[in-house]
């Protein structure tokens, strides 16, 4: 098992299959000794109130709470020199240092890679092992506001780029000529429709990317009839990203930063004010397939891409 967090990579013996730690360029071996909270699922945030006139209690939606993780690592200097250990201590102390950011915690095991976006949830203090100056142990407390674990990469489903219809039957002049190879009925325009397929065991986030030119477009989830209506103007080089998930989404292709939950991002600007929702937000539940149709007012060269990401409880 190999774990990566910010600048730290550790691996080895925590995996039942065995293995060794990860040795960095300075000769420090980083060994994974614990990963509490990564496996399983967070507790639901249940909220119940007493029923004053009847037995039992009133309940509310029991959404899952944050995923809290404790990452246990041991650093050992293979050449038993104290200087690399001092460097290692400073590197661990600097993990996830930007309080405005979430950092991907990537865990690779026999089934592949999954990640969660985390921040520090407490202090990081080293413990020297056996009083030696070349070995130390850390417990790094982390928390993921979104309890799901995600596939590393987004999957893109691009609808055909819009092209204009051409040709057709010309009934002017002498009339329709059906001689030769027959009547040429021209070429029809494209229908911009993209499809997303859910993978994993949890609701998959979906981000819809629409590139102009467009003026007041809509995106319809074909299977449910849910509609997203965007009232803004898009030039040929403009792309708006619409996040249909309740949580912010990170590392979306083409995004300048996180795309707000149930919001829209145009360049670096929040474009949620131009977005209206009819029938509820689209949702890609486990084991489902959803199709998204671009409609409204758009021009030649416009495109629709549906980005989805596998998610696991």
Please specify the SSE layout and strand pairing.
Elements: E1 2-5, E2 8-11, E3 22-23, E4 28-36, E5 48-50, E6 57-59, E7 67-77, H1 82-93, E8 103-109, E9 112-120, E10 127-128, E11 135-144, E12 149-150, E13 155-158, E14 193-197, E15 206-211, E16 214-221, E17 226-234, E18 239-243, E19 264-266, E20 269-270, E21 275-278, E22 289-298, E23 303-308, E24 311-312
Antiparallel strand pairs: 1-2, 1-8, 3-4, 4-7, 5-6, 7-11, 8-9, 9-11, 10-11, 12-24, 13-23, 14-22, 15-18, 15-23, 16-17, 16-22, 17-21, 18-19, 19-20
Structural features, described:
It is built from 1 helix and 24 strands. The chain has one helix spanning 82-93, and strands at 2-5, 8-11, 22-23, 28-36, 48-50, 57-59, 67-77, 103-109, 112-120, 127-128, 135-144, 149-150, 155-158, 193-197, 206-211, 214-221, 226-234, 239-243, 264-266, 269-270, 275-278, 289-298, 303-308, 311-312. The longest helix is centred in the N-terminal third of the chain and has 12 residues, at 82-93. It is globular and about 95 Å long.
């Amino acid at each position: 098992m190999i774990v990566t967090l910010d600048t730290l990579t550790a691996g080895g013996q925590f995996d039942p299959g065995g293995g060794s730690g990860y040795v960095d360029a300075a000769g420090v071996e980083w060994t994974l000794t614990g990963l509490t909270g990564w496996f399983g699922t967070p507790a639901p945030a249940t909220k119940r109130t007493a029923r004053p006139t009847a037995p039992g209690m009133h309940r509310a939606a029991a959404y899952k709470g944050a995923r809290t993780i404790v990452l246990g690592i041991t650093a050992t200097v293979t050449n038993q020199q104290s200087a690399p250990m001092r460097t290692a201590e400073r590197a661990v102390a600097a993990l996830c240092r930007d309080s405005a950011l979430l950092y991907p915690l990537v865990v690779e095991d026999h089934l592949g890679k999954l990640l969660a976006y985390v921040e520090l949830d407490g202090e990081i203090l080293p413990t020297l092992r056996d009083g030696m100056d070349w070995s130390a142990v850390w417990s790094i407390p982390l928390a993921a506001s979104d309890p799901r674990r995600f596939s590393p990469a987004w999957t893109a489903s691009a609808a055909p780029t819009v092209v204009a219809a051409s040709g057709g039957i010309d009934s002017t002049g002498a009339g329709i000529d059906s001689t030769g190879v027959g009547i040429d009925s021209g070429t029809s325009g494209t229908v911009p429709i993209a499809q997303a397929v859910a993978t994993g065991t949890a609701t998959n986030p979906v981000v819809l990317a629409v590139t102009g030119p467009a003026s007041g477009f809509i995106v319809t989830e074909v299977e449910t009839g849910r509609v997203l209506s965007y009232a803004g103007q898009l030039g040929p080089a403009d792309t708006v990203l619409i996040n249909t998930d309740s949580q912010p989404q990170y590392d979306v292709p083409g995004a300048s930063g996180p795309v707000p939950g149930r919001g829209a991002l145009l360049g670096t600007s929040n474009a949620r004010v131009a977005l209206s929702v009819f029938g509820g937000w689209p949702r890609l539940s486990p084991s489902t397939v959803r199709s998204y149709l671009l409609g409204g007012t758009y021009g030649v060269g416009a495109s629709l891409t549906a980005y989805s990401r596998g998610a696991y409880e």
